[in-house]
Amino acid sequence: MxxxxxxxxxxxxxxxxxxxPAGPDAAIITQLSWLLFGGGLVVFLGVMLxxxxxxxxxxxAGTLLWIAGxxxxxxxxxxxxxxxxxxxxxGQLSTRTSQDALHVxxxxxxxxxxxxxxxxxxxxxxxxxxxxxxxxxxxxxxGLSASDVIHSFWVPALGGKLDAIPGRVNGLVLHADRPGVxxxxxxxxxxxxxxxxxxxxxxxSQQDFDAWLAAQARPAASPxxxxxxxxxxxxxxxxRCNACHAIRGVTDNTDDAGDGTLGPDxxxxxxxRYLGAGTLPNHAGALAGWIAGAQALKPGARMPSFERIDxxxxxxxxxxxxxxK
Length: 325
Prior knowledge:
By secondary structure, the chain is of the alpha+beta class. It contains 6 helices and 13 strands. The chain is elongated and about 90 Å long.
């Protein structure tokens, strides 16, 4: 796993490393990893010591020494100690329970993540993509599923990985102990663009989380007199982008397209950090490039490339989507 410093273009606080845990569960997993590595090293050094003794004496060490020392005593002692300690520490991992926790539903798709929160005020789902926010110091229960093939949800800085399986909901608890942005990655090969199936987890204060969730619950902002943005909104509907993408407050009443659930919900797409499940940083230029060349940037993605859109319309559409904060 790469630390932030090795990820070009990412902020210094972005982390995708098991060596830099940002929560209590991840800290336990990191400790166990180091301990198992150390135990393996002890076994290796023990065997090398026996080999050195044999070479020094000019004849192989006695068979009994090899079997009793290197084959029984050393492994049994080390592995037994590791087993006892790892069993004790593993028992301290957060219990996968939906009780007294914030709930988030995550559905893995080829090749992006659909994220759903429940709006406490209206009871309606708040749908977004490829970005998960959670409050610091509070356990978040993530219900994992998949719509097509088996994927695996893994945010190394916050905990272990768990498979997302079609027709089944698996539960995972995330717990961040300080603010930060953590990169997650599908950890189960799921097809051509498996490597470009990332998501970002933003850990923030309870106050910031509440403000973010309230903003996400609102419908999309209107263009408010901006001619370029207004034209982009018209292009969005004229190109029938709403056949695959929903924008709350815009596509709710359209009846000439699909239900807008094939692709990511774009209601607040301008507020997200990346496009295409971590493929590009999010800004108007990248949005235009993505719309016109999605298949070049992410071959096999469900979204076709829209090369046919003229430049002016493409710029307007990108400006409109960027406007959706």
